[in-house]
Structure formats: structure tokens, C-alpha cells
Write a structure and sequence with these properties.
Pfam families: Metallophos. One of its GO terms (cellular component) is membrane. Keywords: Cell inner membrane, Cell membrane, Manganese, Membrane, Metal-binding. Residues 7-204 form the Calcineurin-like phosphoesterase domain. The chain is α/β, with parallel strands linked by helices. It has one domain: Purple Acid Phosphatase, chain A, domain 2 (4-Layer Sandwich). 36% of the residues lie in helices and 25% in strands. It is built from eight helices and twelve strands. It has helices at residues 22-29, 56-69, 122-126, 128-154, 162-169, 171-190, 243-246, 263-274; strands at 3-10, 32-40, 74-78, 93-94, 97-100, 102-107, 110-115, 195-198, 205-211, 214-220, 229-234, 237-242. A seven-stranded mixed β-sheet has the order 4-5-3-2-1-11-12. It has a five-stranded mixed β-sheet with strand order 6-7-8-10-9, with helices on one face. A hairpin with a 2-residue loop joins β9 (205-211) and β10. It starts with a strand and ends with a helix.
Length: 275
């Protein structure tokens, strides 16, 4: 039985990369019935897109999203830096599917500001080639990490995250995350928002930020590369959903996929966007 959820935010899925956990995301999406689904950037990784690598599991996620949009779920696709090609389609609407750069919602009388967050990243804004190179290095690190974790599972050991270890131990990475959260929160406070919701930094979070001007709740949906996380809002409460904590409750169920779009045709559509 599917869970009814008022609002779900996912980001940083990076479909089309080796590190993407598309099968796990599909299981999660098949377990919920959201009134509103917000895709907060970097869903399809156009930067690293290759025709030779876009598995059926990745295409199924796109089909599922389209399926939700045809079944009374409002779907917002907010563009990020890895899928910036879609920014030329800003304000495009097709039924319940809308493409935008940011959205402002009123959730139970609370002003909510939702955007990806790459606007705060100087490397993306001013040295895009460096950011793209970093993205390829990150993807390679995830591939190596997946191989290591496969061996660890075989010998009964716990999984290990190279990138989390690096983030937690490199002072610059820790400072970057802290600065990102503070910058987003202070801008939200200045503009009288109660909630600010971001992605981009692959760091799930819910915390209150206060300064002399006021306070807001900062939220981040994390990613579907390492954390496998999403934000859920239901019964006037925000929660972070972690796949690893709930995977034993999720069933494989792909019966409600869209059937009138073949995987081949869908890949052609994605390829046209990427070129």
C-alpha cells in the first residue's frame, strides 16, 4: 500500500551517471503517492551524458515521474547546474508538469522558497570547466567506492563512503557546506521566508537558522548517489527520508509505469535535450 504524502522533494539524482541509484529511487517513488513532487535540480546529468550509458533503470525513473504527472500529482522540475540545458524551457508547462528555476509556495501559511542552490557556487558560475572536471572525478570516485562496497558486503563488512569521509575531514569542504547553508538561510530571512529548501551540496539537513533579523528553517534534500534521501512534508511536519533505513519496507512494483512511451523513444528525447 502506498503512503500518501503532501509534498516530496528529491534532488541530485544524476541520471546517466554510474553512481546514480536509480533502482533504489524507483522503489521509493513506487512506495508513495505525493500530492506534489518537486525535482530540485540535477535530476538528469547533462554534463556527463553519454548515449552509450543510459540504462533502462534510469529511463524507468523518468517514466515514473511522467506517470505521476498524469495521475494528479503536481510535478515541478527545478533546474540545477548539471541539467542547466533545461533552463531554456523555463516556465514550460505540460499538464501537471512544470519546468522552472525556482518556486515559492505557501505551505500551511508558511512561505517556502525552493531552488537548487548552484547560484551560490562560484566554481559553477565563473569556471564551469573546473566544475565539470570535478563532476567527472566525483563520478569516478563513486564507481570505485561501489566496487569496494561490493567486496565489503561479500565479506560481511559495513559499507564505506569515501566522499563522506573526505567531506567530514577536509576543513574546506566542511566550511563550504556551512557557508552554503548560512547564505541560503540569511537570504531567506531577508526575504521573509519561513522555509528555504535546497539541493546541490548532497548534504541532507533540517535545521533552524536565526540571526538578528529573524529565523527560518533550512532544508536540504540530499542526493541519490550516496545518501539516498528525500524531504517529505506531511501533517505539518518535515522529515528526511533515508532509503537505507526503510528499504526493508519497500517492494519492487513497476506496474503503474507509463506504457505508451518506449524506452527507445524516451532515450531519443533525452538525447535531443542533451545535444
Amino acid at each position: 500500500m502506498k503512503r500518501n504524502v503532501e509534498l516530496v522533494v528529491i534532488s541530485d539524482v544524476h541520471l546517466g551517471t554510474y553512481g546514480c541509484k536509480a533502482k533504489e529511487l524507483m522503489r521509493y517513488l513506487n512506495s508513495i503517492q505525493p500530492k506534489t513532487l518537486i525535482l530540485n535540480g540535477d535530476i538528469i546529468d547533462i554534463w556527463q551524458f553519454k548515449k552509450s550509458y543510459f540504462p533502462k533503470a534510469h529511463l524507468k525513473v523518468i517514466k515514473k515521474i511522467l506517470s505521476l504527472a498524469t495521475k494528479n500529482t503536481d510535478v515541478y522540475y527545478i533546474t540545477g547546474n548539471h541539467d542547466e540545458m533545461f533552463r531554456k524551457f523555463t516556465d514550460f508547462e505540460l499538464g501537471n508538469l512544470k519546468v522552472c528555476n525556482k518556486i515559492c509556495l505557501h505551505i500551511d501559511d508558511k512561505k517556502t522558497w525552493i531552488f537548487h542552490g548552484d547560484v551560490f557556487d562560484a566554481s559553477v558560475q565563473h569556471s564551469k570547466w573546473i566544475a565539470k572536471l570535478g563532476g567527472k572525478g566525483y563520478d569516478l570516485l563513486i564507481v570505485i567506492n561501489n566496487i569496494v562496497n561490493w567486496f565489503l558486503e561479500k565479506v560481511g563488512k559495513e559499507k564505506y563512503s569515501f566522499s563522506k569521509k573526505i567531506k567530514n575531514n577536509v576543513k574546506k569542504a566542511v566550511k563550504y557546506i556551512g557557508d552554503f547553508e548560512l547564505t541560503a538561510s540569511e537570504l531567506a530571512i531577508d526575504n521573509h521566508y519561513d522555509y528555504v529548501v535546497c539541493g546541490h551540496i548532497h548534504q541532507p539537513q533540517i535545521r533552524k537558522v536565526s540571526n538578528k533579523k529573524g529565523s527560518c528553517i533550512y532544508l536540504n534534500s540530499g542526493d541519490w548517489i550516496e545518501n539516498l534521501s528525500a524531504l517529505e512534508y506531511h501533517d505539518k511536519e518535515w522529515k528526511i527520508f533515508y532509503y537505507e533505513e526503510h528499504k526493508h519496507l519497500l517492494k519492487d512494483d513497476a506496474t503503474d509505469e507509463i506504457q505508451d512511451i518506449s524506452s527507445t523513444d524516451l532515450l531519443k528525447i533525452v538525447t535531443n535535450f542533451a545535444e
